[in-house]
Design brief:
This protein is mainly α. It has a single domain, classed as Amino acid/polyamine transporter I (Up-down Bundle). It is 72% helix and 1% strand. The chain has 18 helices and two strands. The protein has a two-stranded antiparallel ribbon. α12 (286-294) runs antiparallel to α13. The termini are close together.
Length: 503
């Protein structure tokens, strides 16, 4: 009896990705995707506006569930190394619907991040160009406050880093590692300067989360702090391109602990040098402002240069895992076969990488033409913490379910395999639910504004609903093998049983 119709697109397995990466490459991808310099430069003012001087406390607290999520990723990756990571793992452990949703929200969130960050990157490049004395090019004013010019420059940067990601992920990681060394040298140098010379009195209360004004502020601040760490899991997206699957986990953990150290050090240094009103006022320009406050030119421009490098590296680091997540979904035919095309020369998912770049570029250009879309992108980036909490939480629960038998293997194994992942996942899911409720209750009407709670909630909700719609399309229209057994699985895993059925 034939259980499934013939699947011509699956007759030959997709070409394998080229294994060329090691631990250093994993660290470079994870650290670049986390973009500590950008998070510190742009996020410190935002988190200060939410929780006051308790940023160090929130960053330390946020690290705990994120570390629990990281242990879940490492264990799952050791059991089943797959570039689709959460999409595959959640699908097998919790079922194909939550599995597909995990993959979908991760991809959409990354593409939104790319569309928004490209324009931000262009603006930083233009600011530095102006500082270098280049104010116009071919009669066009290089104005960093111009959304159109910033977007175009950002898209040129996006195209360049995409080309590098296509022609070889190892060359891309080597560039990222070089940029990281410069960024961190500048960041540590200026933060040490601020820590030593700052006039604001250091206080242990900065590490006391109970000093926060309300539960809502705590939840919002904690989600923001989790968002600071977002990106370390990019190391697992190239697990099929690493020489050893364990290198992905080692790279992710090294990057994660390095980020914790940088975030805590920078948050204390910023608060030593700047008062709370000063930090909030300079918000997105906090790092360049710190450079200008501490040093004269040309040294004062070094933090801006580090920020530019960080923005470029984070854009490239976002392109790489997104294309590989789509490759895993294409292998299951939950999405189209175009995503499975691996370049015969470069051994990368070239077609998918270019399409991801094109979609992000299209959204960024539409945002220039439609001002309200620009507001939507800003709100989406602000609300993306809810999406991150969702897919991190589901992946951690998938780990607890998959390895639930380990609870009989002693207390230590039960805690590491089940208890810690389950607790971390529930914390993030509960945090996301609380913040979603806060968004719904903070406004009494709907308005297209990044400050409107209903609007803020509607964006991640739309991403989730669209994911459920696309899952239905994959199941009923594409008849994807991911849904065939009732449990999500990678298409390669189904190849042998389906061949037996055909026989």
């Amino acid at each position: 009896m034939t259980l499934n119709a013939p699947r011509p697109a699956q007759s030959a397995s997709p070409a394998p990705l080229r294994r060329s990466l090691g631990v250093v490459d994993g660290v470079a991808i994870a650290a670049s995707s986390t973009a500590a310099t950008t998070s510190i430069a742009i996020g410190m003012g935002t988190i200060a506006a939410t929780v006051g001087l308790q940023a160090p406390a929130l960053l330390l607290l946020a690290f705990l569930p994120v570390l629990g999520i990281a242990t879940a990723y490492a264990r799952l990756n050791r059991s089943e190394p797959n570039c689709g990571n959460g999409y595959v793992w959640v699908g097998k452990s919790l079922g194909p619907w939550p599995g597909f949703l995990t993959g979908w929200v991760t991809l959409v969130g990354s593409i939104i991040f790319l569309a928004y960050t490209s324009a931000v990157t262009g603006s930083v490049v233009l600011i530095f160009a102006n500082k270098a004395g280049l104010d116009s090019l071919a009669g066009i004013a290089l104005d960093p406050t111009s959304t159109a010019v910033s977007t175009v420059v950002g898209l040129v940067t996006l195209t360049a880093v995409t080309a590098m990601a296509v022609t070889g992920v190892r060359s891309a990681t080597r560039l990222q590692f070089g940029l990281l060394v410069f960024e961190y040298a500048v960041l540590l140098g200026f933060c040490t300067w601020a820590l030593v010379t700052g006039e604001q009195q250091f206080s242990l209360s900065w590490f006391n989360p109970f000093e926060m004004s309300s539960g809502t502020a705590f939840a919002q601040g904690l989600v923001l702090a989790v968002f600071f760490f977002w990106g370390w899991d990019a190391a697992f997206s190239v697990t099929e391109e690493t020489r050893s699957p364990g290198d992905s986990a080692r790279g992710g953990f090294i990057a994660l602990f390095a980020m914790l150290g940088l975030f805590l050090f920078a948050s204390v240094a910023f608060q030593r040098e700047m008062s709370l009103p000063e930090l909030i006022k300079n918000g997105p320009q906090a790092l360049p402002y710190l450079g200008a406050k501490l040093a004269a030119e040309p040294w004062a421009s070094l933090p801006l240069l580090a920020l530019m490098f960080s923005a470029v590296a984070s854009v490239q680091a976002a392109v790489i895992p997104t294309a590989r997540g789509l490759l895993a979904m294409g292998r299951d035919r939950t999405l189209g076969p175009v995503w499975t095309r691996v370049h015969p020369k470069y051994g990368t998912p070239a077609a998918g990488t270019v399409i991801v770049m094109s979609i992000a570029a299209g959204i960024a250009l539409l945002a220039v033409a439609i001002p309200k879309l620009s507001d939507m992108l800003l709100a989406a980036v602000n609300a993306i913490g809810l999406v991150v909490a969702l897919y991190y939480g589901l992946t951690a629960l998938a780990c607890a379910v998959r390895f639930r038998a380990a609870r009989r293997d002693g207390l230590r194994e039960a805690l590491l395999a089940v208890g810690v992942p389950a607790a971390s996942g529930l914390v993030l899911l509960g945090l996301g639910a609380y913040l979603g409720y806060s968004y719904l209750t903070m406004s009494d009407h709907f308005e297209l504004s990044p400050d409107n709670g209903w609007f803020m909630f509607s964006l991640p909700a739309t991403i989730v609903v669209s994911g459920l719609v696309m899952a239905a399309v994959a199941k009923y229209a594409r008849r994807s093998p991911y849904f065939a057994t009732g449990r999500g699985t990678d298409a390669d895993a189904l190849a042998l049983p389906m061949d037996r059925t055909a026989l």
